[in-house]
Amino acid sequence: xxxxxxxxxxxxxGVLAGKIQQSVVALNELTIEVSPDDLLSVSLFxxxxxxxxxxxxxxxCGVDYLTYGETEWDTSGSGFSRGVKxxxxxxxxxxxxxxxxxxxxxxxxxxxxxxxxxxxxxLKCYCDDNDFPRVNxxxxxxxxxxxxxxxxxxxxxxxxxxxxxLRRILTDYGFIGHxxxxxxxxxxxxxxxxxxxxxxxxxxxxxxxxRTLVPRVIRKDxxxxxxxxxxx
Length: 232
Description:
Elements: H1 3-15, E1 20-26, E2 29-34, H2 39-48, E3 56-64, E4 106-114, E5 119-126, E6 134-136, H3 145-156, E7 159-161, E8 190-195, E9 200-205
Parallel strand pairs: 2-5, 6-7
Antiparallel strand pairs: 1-2, 3-4, 4-5, 8-9
């Protein structure tokens, strides 16, 4: 860990001791976790504090932890997970009770840059409600949060309270569901195509057949695997 990163970590833990739930340094990067209630106040501090000066927001993204720790290509047991068959119900927005996630499923991750101090920090906030995930909008603190929050809403269904124009940005206005959620079907819900006779875009029931995808194979390669003592 660099000396500057350690100084920043200690500074934040001291000043924001009651608001930082977790502070982790990994791969020479600092990540702090806060609750939805403290997201705005901590963000303002990170922007305005002289020791921080994180004046530029680089990115905001959503995370779905529904299948966290599992693998899409698990060849043991039932096969290749979602790559072969659906394990969730997609009738409406309700999940099967057997697949109901325990714990906080959705998180919002914010990446900040301090040009003055040449430092970066990652701010993570877990949504309290899995069925209706929401946090406060950061658009009033960093203007660049506007479209990032719209993307997180479109892809993950995370709502941002106070956003001036929260609507879809990557999918169509009539699109159903949120494509980056782990329980969204790989083949989607509908097909979209342009009809020459009707001279407009039409939607039809999805026609893609579910199929077994080629599993990812990890091969041992000395070029990418650190040398192990005793190996020849």
